[in-house]
Amino acid sequence: MPHGKHIFDDHDRLLISLLRQDGRAPVSKLAEIMGVSRGTVQTRLDRLLASGALLGFTARLREDYDASRIRAIMMIEVQGRNTAHVIRKLRGLPELQMLHTTSGKWDLIAEIVVEDLEQFDRVLREVRLVEGVLNSETSILLSSI
Predict the structure, then answer these.
(1) Level-2 CATH architecture, domain 10-51
(2) CB count, 10 Å around CB of 27?
């Protein structure tokens, strides 16, 4: 079922959960935790990857590994029908790691990652100068819990 609706059973959900915790876990370890054979885990991994439901695996960093970087969430209000223009401009800023549309009070939410406060200040100014950005509110992420 390429790019359609994916139906997960309990084994799929458990496998996805385990991969979120450790994207580098060996198939044998996943099989042991799940109580199934390595072949079963491999078949499910192959199926999830082929279907597009699972895009790949990532390494998770310890929270303090990248502690020197400043991470923040910026909520952005867009004026009128300028959303497409604003999105195009914001995608050009490499410090915006992710950009999301939202159904709430704010039109866009940007995830910001920078090396220092000087870069942070510059990014905030650049976003506010984008034509069509009416208002914004930014929160620095202090710790993940």
Answers:
(1) Orthogonal Bundle (1.10)
(2) 14
